[in-house]
Amino acid sequence: MGLIIDTNVFIDAENGRLELGAIPVLQTEPVFIAAITVSELLAGVKLAKTPEEYMHRHTYAESILNTIPVLDFDTEVARTYAELYAQALGQQRRSNLNVHDLQIAATALVQGYSILTTNVDDFKGVPGVRLISPYALQGNTIHEEQARYTPSS
């Protein structure tokens, strides 16, 4: 199994709400980030309000990008994303549709990986994705949520 870390996990860690070293699954599973997470991290750097905040965010983002492998948004992921996006639009989920989260979900589905996220609600209704909340981890037990995903032919 592998694990894709959602951007909000890094944000919570950066803001002191979460200790990455205390999450057992990060020590036992191969970890990755989706390509869109690179964009989200770097956008956060660009949105810094002060030079000090910019330097802090830049250093933090680069430390992540230099240590965690990035999974590409390739053709297979794009096809899965298109299907998820079309399903979401067809189900009238526009009000809570987040295209970045759908890209992370598509990447996880193609790779067969789970997503570590502090916002499991962001992925509610996305079929087939396995979610792990770092706040729900108890010792070495992983609490996962999973829905069924069946790609159309």
Notes on the structure:
- With about 150 residues, this protein is α/β, with parallel strands linked by helices.
- It has one domain: 5'-nuclease (Rossmann fold).
- The chain contains six helices and six strands; from the N terminus they run βααβααβααβββ.
- Helix 3 runs antiparallel to helix 4 and helix 5 crosses helix 6.
- The chain starts with a strand and ends in a 7-residue tail after the last strand.
- Keywords: Hydrolase, Magnesium, Metal-binding, Nuclease, Toxin, Toxin-antitoxin system.
CATH class: Alpha Beta
Give, in spatial order, the strands making up the sheet with the most strands.
Answer: 3-2-1-4-5-6
> What's the CATH topology label?
Rossmann fold
Structural class: alpha/beta
- Count of individual helical segments: 6
Q: Identify the overall geometry.
A: globular
Cofactor: Mg(2+)
Domain PIN: 4-126
Keywords: Hydrolase, Magnesium, Metal-binding, Nuclease, Toxin, Toxin-antitoxin system
Function: Toxic component of a toxin-antitoxin (TA) system. An RNase.
